[in-house]
Amino acid sequence: MPRVDFAHVDDVGDYTPLPKGQYRCRLAAVEEASTQYGDEMWKLRFEVAEGEHAGRYIFDNLVFSSRGLKHVKLVCSRMGIDVSGELDLTPDMLEGREVLVTVGVVDYEDAAGNTKQRNKVPFDGYLPAPQSEASRQEGERPGGSDANGEGQDEQAGAEDEQADGEDEEGIPF
User: Fold this and answer.
1) pTM of the predicted model, to two decimals?
2) For residue 160, with 0-12 CB atoms within 10 Å meaning exposed, 13-18 middle and 19 or more buried, which class applies?
3) Alpha helices in 54-132 (DSSP H)
4) For residue range 39-87, what is the model confidence (pLDDT) as tens digits?
5) Quick one: 75 exposed, middle or buried, by C-beta within 10 A (0-12, 13-18, 19+)?
6) Are 144 and 154 in contact (CB under 8 A)?
């Protein structure tokens, strides 16, 4: 059983919502869950990547129901996923990608009946994030894909194949 001295533990942090606006975010985590109606749902946790609110989180959900698929398509497309056809979408395809997230502030009532505020991402509250300076220098897109949409793992495999002594043109130097 752990022994904890709470005298040296800070109180709960500030849970005030972020100011209304647009934030460059990185998708930090995807938690798989189900809605109360049994539809598959992904709980998204975005981390604000820059500015005065860097390190704070924005939350949203993707629901894989017939009604929710339009939102799923929009979010995925804004994160750089090719949504032009059939796709076996997995959380790791989204995690780490950057996107601009717009939030508003809405009132809600907690379990005790108190009115509080929280952030809400509107349906179309996502835009592609411009490439960061570091990504432009490396020729990559945020989230581990290059400008052609190929992932870093695919690039690493191609580099391994070339490491056998020949370059792309078959020249051994």
Assistant:
1) 0.70
2) exposed
3) 69-78
4) 999 999 999 999 999 999 999 999 999 999 999 999 999 999 999 999 9
5) buried
6) no
Q: 14-132+144-156: which CATH number, 2.40.50, 2.30.29, 1.20.120, 2.10.109?
A: 2.40.50
How far is it, in rounded angstroms, from Cα 31 to Cα 28? 10
pLDDT tens digit string along 101-154? 999 999 999 888 989 999 999 999 999 999 865 454 555 444 444 433 444 343
Q: Are strands 115-120 and 98-109 parallel, antiparallel or unpaired?
A: antiparallel
Residue 61 DSSP code? E
Pairing, β 145-146 against β 21-34: unpaired
Burial of 79 (0-12, 13-18, 19+ CB in 10 A): buried
For the chain, domain boundaries: 14-132+144-156
| Termini Cα distance of the chain | 61
pLDDT above 80 for 162 = no
